[in-house]
Design a protein that fits this description.
The complex is a heterodimer of chains A (101) and B (453). Chain A is an all-alpha fold and 101 residues long. Chain A is built from 4 helices and no strands. Helix content of chain A is 70%, strand content 0%. The longest helix of chain A has 29 residues. Chain A is flat and about 60 Å long. With 453 residues, chain B is of the alpha/beta class. Chain B has 3 domains: 77 residues; 190 residues, no CATH class; 168 residues, Rossmann fold. Helix content of chain B is 58%, strand content 7%. Classes of the chains: A mainly alpha (101), B alpha/beta (453).
């Protein structure tokens, strides 16, 4: 039963994802991709549980390594997306200070 | 915190991811959207840390600090031109994390066969994402040859790897054990398969690969969610999977090729284009200046060559001069220009080009007849009229920006060698085409100095 419910969650999330993303304009494709990529770092939650379970040393080690990689993904992904997005400016508010060399 | 309460927080996090993704859909709200999504991530992480399942923190703390430092430094240091490589590496680290989470889930007690299958899936998808991303990174940063690497028995070898993978997976599920040799076989073969899947793909097809790896990194997280019975992983992972699939689809459509065609056939190996004979009409920067100075509308069409030449800043400067001169300036961007989806938009935004001047292929094509000058900078396939006219061309049927319909076309090109995919481009011989040979950055700087002089 559990598997059926999770499967339902899967179906709904995928269709929601399709719905959300299909409207994104082409100019934002890169930030969209890296922003989505940061979300895929959600696997950090699983990594934390393994790393902290304290039952099997091997599971903790695998989990800890996974935590490092997932944190790279999450922290790097969000920061780089933010960096890119803050460069997108509209005509009126694009500050020309330092821009007109 | 009880499991119920944690799940409530997971729902909040999922809501923030969804709303954040929605806000990423418009330039005006995108920064906030990304912020909301990161708050969602923070909530999910903190809620997990309060879980009773977590008993030891020393490993977590050390690992998280290392990861956060690497991620932050990489995100700050990377140049905008290096963004495709960076995204590939981040994808890869997500993939390996999911592989490890799946692997560690084997140590949980009382795994059912269904759980074991999902564990193998997260190992498989995570492994393919990881090694595939590393190869993509190598190709993008030109540590390895960016062209398609094809050899005769490739498909047979790939099929064998896949069959062995499935066989090892089945054998593992029949007798699951944490030290089962079949587990190691699955891990090794997944990594090998990721390498084999990406090496036959050429540089111009990279936008498809990057989007696809992005989808895989989400699906890997999703599979890991099934393996450890965690719904936030499933929700967030499948959102990312869907996002990646849509981007992959958009990229394939923009090249008029099926995903299978991109993945399994080395580009250009199938057909040879009709050889075009003709004479190019080179011009110098003075003549280019005179034509641009008289133009009422100018559109720039950038391609990967602009990124290579780092010409985006001088392009923006020239655009501003033209605007001051009274011309209407736009930047027409093909969906697959560059090495990842939206690559050119990011570079131009970095150079301070306002996003309302960035127009998509479908917006520029209907009015391109009225454009006085189209300036092609380091783009080739995406403006190649052979895609429209020559049925023998390997890119026949691919939608292009019809620059040849503009009144005048400038093509900035280093030399007369053919472009990446090796197809001859009749645009170069067009009646209204003028070739401006040399480094794109230098050529444009030359025109700028004419404007100022």
């Amino acid at each position: 039963m559990e598997a059926v419910l999770l499967g339902l969650v899967l179906m709904l999330s995928i269709s929601l994802g399709f719905e959300l993303i299909s409207k994104v304009p082409a100019i934002l494709h890169t930030p969209l991709m890296s922003g989505a990529n940061a979300i895929s770092g959600i696997t950090i939650v699983g990594a934390l549980i393994s790393a902290g379970s304290g039952i099997e040393p091997m599971a903790s080690i695998l989990g800890a390594v996974a935590v490092s990689f997932a944190t790279i993904n999450v922290v790097g992904g969000y920061l780089v997306t933010n960096r890119m997005l803050s460069m997108f400016k509209k005509k009126d508010d694009s500050t020309r200070a330092g821009g007109s060399s | 915190m009880s499991l119920e309460l944690i799940n409530v927080w997971y729902v909040v996090a999922a809501g923030l991811f969804i709303y954040g993704l929605k806000q990423l859909g418009s330039p005006a709200t995108a920064v906030r959207g990304n912020l909301l999504s990161s708050v969602g991530m923070l909530i999910a992480v903190v809620a997990t840390l309060f879980s009773q399942q977590i008993l030891e923190f020393q490993w977590i703390l050390a690992a998280a600090i290392v990861g956060a430092l690497i991620g932050a430094v990489a995100a700050q240091r990377v140049a905008m031109t290096g963004m495709p490589e960076m995204v590939a590496l981040f994808n890869g680290s997500g993939g390996i994390a999911s592989l490890l989470v799946g692997w560690a889930a084997l140590y949980n007690i009382g795994n059912t066969t269904f759980t074991n299958i999902t564990i193998l899936l997260s190992v498989l998808i995570g492994g393919v994402t990881f090694s595939g991303s590393i190869v993509a990174w190598g190709k993008l940063s030109e540590i390895m040859a960016s062209r398609a690497i094809v050899f005769g028995a490739q498909r047979v070898v790939n099929a064998l790897i896949l069959i062995t993978l499935v066989a090892c997976g089945v054998l593992f599920c029949l007798e699951p054990a944490i030290d089962s040799p079949y587990l190691y076989a699955v891990i090794g073969l997944s990594l090998l398969f990721g390498v084999m899947a990406v090496i036959p793909i050429g540089g111009a097809d990279m936008p498809v690969v990057i989007s696809l790896l992005n989808a895989y990194s989400g699906l890997a997280a999703c599979a890991a969610g099934f393996a450890i019975n965690n719904n936030i992983l499933i929700v967030a992972g499948s959102l990312v999977g869907a996002a990646g699939m849509i981007l992959t689809n958009i990229m394939c459509k923009a090249m008029n090729r099926s995903l299978a065609n991109v993945l399994f056939s080395g580009f250009g190996a199938v057909k040879t284009a009709t050889k075009i004979e003709g004479e190019v009409k080179p011009i110098n920067t003075e003549d280019a200046y005179l034509i641009l100075e008289a133009a009422a509308s100018v559109t720039f069409v950038p391609g990967y060559g602009m990124a290579v030449a780092q010409a985006q800043h001088v392009v923006r400067e020239l655009g501003e001069l033209l605007e001051k001169n009274g011309a209407d300036v736009t930047y027409a961007i093909h969906p697959v220009a560059g090495r990842m989806p939206g690559h050119m938009n990011v570079l131009l935004a970095e150079a301070n080009v306002p996003y309302d001047q960035l127009v998509e292929m479908d917006d520029i094509n209907p009015r391109i007849d009225n454009i006085d000058v189209a300036v092609v900078i380091g783009a080739n396939d995406v403006v190649n009229p052979a895609a429209r006219e020559d049925e023998n061309s390997p890119i026949y049927g691919m939608p292009i920006i019809n620059v040849d319909h503009a009144r005048t076309v400038f093509v900035l090109k280093r030399t007369m060698a053919s472009g990446f995919s090796g197809v001859d481009n009749p645009l170069f011989f067009g009646e209204n085409t003028r070739m401006l040979f040399g480094d794109a950055k230098e050529s444009i700087s030359g025109v700028i100095s004419q404007f100022k002089g």
